């Protein structure tokens, strides 16, 4: 896997980048695809009859097909958004608002990222529905049997992560979706982490909505995807209005385009979508299975080393063996003191509450350090982080160097 | 004093404030209070101040803090430094502290133990940890004109 390091310009700067769950680095091909657009065909999509406009529209739509193939859906089920957050907000404000009534229930878990908690919390508060929390296992996943126990005839939506951004456990979407549909509810999946580390087939898994971002899967920031089942998208009203999403306009009323276009109002993030296409082609070329196998090996190597060599370490997700994450603290040392010490050695990790404050309360900590690995990370980088932690002493060295 | 000695002395001062925080007690009902949080890291501070309006003097400072070593030690140092100081003295001290952490000219003589945090100038992402207590204090006294 080391051969692929040269594809990532950021890796030339001698950083050890262990914050991949926050955002991944971008390969040259993605950066070049974006600059190719700006240099050679930087016009708008779908407007007029010019040949450049035709070319960019074709390119844009070809990425929709690439995404669809990547997740096992049809292209008309792929909506481009600003990212996972916007995708989940779109489901809540259009679909959720349409089907939720007073007294209904929405099921989520305490390890949800704020983006898969707050849209539902807001919706419940607005419509007089309630949020129900399904218990989680130690690796952050939900046992389908436990889900069954909290499902009632009032449950309309179950919204869970594919992989928790703190705990790293991988939810069994197939079994969970069976339970959700047994109770005639709808299954919304936050795939921000899952899309990177698991091969997803939304049709096989029978998921109703799947949301993810480009920037965590080696693509540019500013673009993401909402997958929705065609029949559900068809029923849903648009939530943003303006150019491109409209069909016929009268003084007092308008009709809107078919899905997915009715959800894509205004000028879209065309270069970013093209960059996302390049990222998917890159992943396909490297092979996601190989990437994931390397990450798993790295994690095992690093976690064993941390346990054996750092005496005061407390690891919160030891059992999430298929994960790319190691979430931990050093006893009696604040996560930010640890992260600063690593930062001085050009090792970038995440410290804080990871936009998952309910998850932190569940672990009974204020914050943690999270190492999140990618396929371009190396065993030598793992050695280095352990070496720095071993020498950290009182963890205030940063003030004296 | 050599740099090395300075360093070990400062290190000792900081860790002493972390392990033995000063002025931890239950505030009386008349103490002014505020709550501040660094939303990005979760550092949390409840600050209580006994302020005498007739003499414009800080009579007492106490607090509850959870956070990193820099945040916790800085609040503890502040509580020692500013007790029994007039509002004018406080303003001078805070100005010097802010100058120190942002790399401007400052007078170390007025900063007491807080001078041990001077290295923060080289760690810009952590300045907000060191200044949380002072920010809360200014807020309590209505001097927060940010």
Briefly say what this structure is:
The complex is a heterodimer of chains A (401) and B (146). Chain A has helices at residues 28-40, 51-71, 84-99, 118-127, 144-150, 173-182, 194-197, 202-205, 230-235, 270-286, 288-309, 335-344, 357-363, 379-390; strands at 16-17, 78-81, 105-109, 130-134, 155-161, 186-190, 209-213, 224-228, 246-249, 254-256, 313-315, 325-330, 347-348, 350-352, 368-372.
Q: How would you characterize this protein structure?
A:
The complex is a heterodimer of chains A (401) and B (146). Helix content of chain A is 40%, strand content 16%. Chain A is built from 14 helices and 15 strands. In chain A, the strands form 4 sheets. Chain A has a 7-stranded mixed β-sheet, with helices on both faces. In chain A, strands 11-12-15-14 form a 4-stranded antiparallel β-sheet, covered by helices on one side. In chain A, helix 6 links the parallel strand 5 (155-161) and strand 6 (186-190). Chain A is globular. The mean pLDDT of chain A is 95. Chain B contains 4 helices and 4 strands, in the order αβββαβαα. Chain B has a 4-stranded antiparallel β-sheet. The interface between A and B is medium-sized, with 20 and 25 residues.
CATH topology name of the largest domain in chain A: Aspartate Aminotransferase, domain 2
Q: How many DSSP H or I helices of chain A? A: 14
In the sheet with the most strands of chain B, the strands line up as: 1-2-3-4
The portion of residues assigned to helices of chain A is 25-40%
**Cα shape of chain B:** globular
Largest interface: A-B, 20 and 25 residues
Low confidence ranges of chain A: none
Count the DSSP helices of chain B.
4
The biggest sheet of chain A, with number of strands, parallel, antiparallel or mixed sense and barrel status, is: 7 strands, mixed
Specify the CATH class of the largest domain in chain A.
Alpha Beta
Helix percent band of chain B: 40-55%
Q: Tell me, rounded to a whole number, the average pLDDT of chain B.
A: 92
E-strand count of chain B:
4
